[in-house]
Fold these 3 entries.
Entry 1:
Amino acid sequence: MSLRTMLGKSLGGTGQFVLGLAILAALLAGLHLAAPTPTALTPADGDAPASSGQAAASTGGTSPYRDKLADYGVCRGTDPACYNDWDLPRDDDGVVRVLVFTATGSSRHAHLGPLLPAGMNPPLTSAHVAQNAVVRWGQENGFEVDWTEDVRQLDAPAKLAPYDAVVFLSNSRTMLDDASQTALLQYVRSGGGFVAIHNTLGAMYHWPWFQGLLGGANFYDHGPHRDGQIVTTDRRDASTRDLPPRWDFRDEWYNLEPFPTGVRFVAEVDTATIGNHTGFNGHPGHAGDHPVSWCQYYDGGRAWVTTLGHDSAAWTEDSALPGAGSFEKHVVGGILSAAGARPFCR
Ligand SMILES: [Zn+2]
């Protein structure tokens, strides 16, 4: 049944049909006028770089996809005044404890291995290369590591409270429920440390607070998995202090939309070394200005984020992958600084 037929039947008669069309047009006009206007929580695509309030230590250049600074309704940026220094027991016991969380809502990276059984610290096999790496790095660098991908281990603030940092490692899409979302939010607000690695930029897209925690950024797409050279743009930070000014690595070089704002970039990929590839969903890439790692204070907590880590060889012991040693130092420094055990986001 056509619209005309429906209106004709419901209103009857030509005059009433015309009246119906007029009412419909008025309704559509009203809907248009009532369309929501962009807010701080929905950065406008394609806008020019924010000229004020941009706390990011930009590495220069311009990007066609630079987004306005969004504050997500919380205190965020590189100013330590945004940190809630509550002097909790976990801060004073002399032990750095880290929880690695690898739940996946859809796609699962090879470096995570097969799905893990429920519970805390389930048995790892040699296929769980990323989890094994963080455990090994903890042993080598003096921090304790628990691991899980069971959301019930995160379903109350008290369960996260003992940890100096939680490491979200290659999560995908929607993997948190209401209780674990609330626990994470409360944990960060209590001055907790948060680390996001690789595909976690592509998780919880529908939760604006989480997008803010990631630096106001999300994974959009990527080009081919390929070699490139990373430039350490800030060598004062714990995650970059021991790195060379430039180092070889292999990754997917995530394209980001929104582009991170309000953060301190600590490393970027030299886009002259990775070629100009459009991502698989059409993103043109970040020519000349392509951050790969950054940090910020966010809603009382500390957040350190890296897009790196796709290649399983980045996580394996005694890896032959160029830059694997630098990647290890980078992530260990990010974890320890987010945990408050090293100077953070300098
Ligand atoms: Zn990947």
Entry 2:
Amino acid sequence: MLIALLGRILQKIDSLANKIKAHGMLARFKSVGSECHLEWPIKVHNPKWMTLGNGVTISWNGWLYAIEQYGDQSFTPELEIGDKSYIGNSCHIVVCNRIQIGKSVMIADRCYISDNLHEYEDVSRSIAENPMRVPGEVRIGDHSWIGENVCIYGNVTIGKHCVVGANSVVMQDLPDYSVAVGMPAQIVKRYDFSEKRWRKTNKSGDFIDDLGLQKLPRAASHASA
Ligand SMILES: CC(C)(COP(=O)(O)OP(=O)(O)OC[C@H]1O[C@@H](n2cnc3c(N)ncnc32)[C@H](O)[C@@H]1OP(=O)(O)O)[C@@H](O)C(=O)NCCC(=O)NCCS
């Protein structure tokens, strides 16, 4: 009985200490909206380059890393997470240039998002001693849902209201209102606004279901985050 009571008191103290640590960390971000939650423990490097909108939740055990210096390379990184977005536990987000996560985006557990890659050209040096390649930026459009264990890296724009299936690897742009799965992630469905339903597609995004083949309109093939 006494042990159980002591256990509960220690749990409360622990949870209060975690809240204080999370608040202290949020105070070091570039800017933070109202009602943001950072769950402790979490590893955050260089929070001064990170901006959170209102109502953002970042779950425990993650690692947010804004790289300013890598060997002799210098960067000015920007990580932006929009209003009401949710980042699941154990997510790893690494930015050298820019990662922009839109509003109300849901990112499930154990995802990896990065705008950079380790070079491996020089075989006389370890991979860690090779330079960092930064091909562009990562953008994830409003309302998108990224499933568990997804990797997104390089120069990638995922459009609005997209769905990326669990365990997928996204290395190419996805148009607005599309579902993509696999390694590399390829489109399998898009929302048809004239039919008001999701329809199956081939990997180019052309509808291929009961209504027959209909090409993805050119404008829709460029995602806008
Ligand atoms: C992507 C997802 C939403 C698609 O759901 P859906 O619309 O019901 O899709 P369907 O079952 O009709 O699948 C469409 C096709 O994609 C394939 N597919 C679906 N999910 C896949 C995945 N994660 N990886 C590889 N292929 C997948 C299906 O096998 C099917 O292929 P087929 O047309 O050749 O038969 C779902 O499969 C998924 O991965 N959800 C993520 C779950 C998750 O991570 N939740 C975390 C909690 S927030």
Entry 3:
Amino acid sequence: MTLPDNMNGPDWGCVRDAWEEMRNRRMMPMRIGYDPEFRAKLAEDHREIAGYNNYEYGRMAVEALGEILDSDSRVLEIGAGPGTLTIPLSGQVKQIVVVESSDAAVASLSKNLLGCRVENVEVMNRNWLEMGEREVGDGFDLVVCSHFLWQMKDLKRHLAKMEEVSRGHCAVIQPAGRDSMVKEMWTEITGERYTGEFDPDADHFAYLILRQWGRLVDVRNVNYSVERSFDQEVRYIASFIGKSVEVDSRMKEQIEQYVSLKSLSKETQSAVVMWWESPV
Ligand SMILES: C[S@@+](CC[C@H](N)C(=O)[O-])C[C@H]1O[C@@H](n2cnc3c(N)ncnc32)[C@H](O)[C@@H]1O
């Protein structure tokens, strides 16, 4: 893979260190002691929430990307999960090829594709990092990933690889900010002030790299709504707390009490959508 010339300059080191430090926090495995089925239930929650309000998150992102999409577009999506973006995008383009490494995510995506009668999506159950350019294929009009950047240890390599298989545009969509319930509960349980330990934001790193490469990046912010049931909210909070301390039955009760006190309602969240032209 050819990397842009100016990507290993001396000014990059501190940004790379910050990326690694933040990534290590976000990718920490969660420790949940109270329910052996927790992971499967959480995956099902993600699948349901991805489809909330007819895939609102994805619809808003697709709307933001409207000017670079048309009904002839061929799209490559990396790390599609349950189809949060894939499903609304499928109605606007000719074809989507998905690269998704997790068997569970592929099962969840397949279920959603079937449920929505989507037929123009090809799913490759593969690890993006292990695929050569030939296997991925090239000539995609758009190469996109949503809520994916923290999965990549080497962010520059990921962005360069996206560009390599695109003949048109690349796009990154990343949720912005974490809701207050999680942050408050984190402080209550750990006794520490929340300083962004599990904020999903990562777009600013991509922006820095791309501008360093001379790319002109278009950026739009979109809002979308999310609503969780009581059990989903408890699992959602536990999944983040569990990155710091093991969540046992007593702690689960503490989270439940907290969620009972706060009335659950529809929340508005934001995401950053950025896109740029791939160099030919
Ligand atoms: C946080 S989820 C985001 C899912 C979806 N794009 C969304 O916006 O909700 C990240 C997804 O990337 C997948 N993933 C992580 N590393 C990957 C890799 N190296 N190759 C392919 N998929 C990967 C995970 O299995 C997971 O489904």
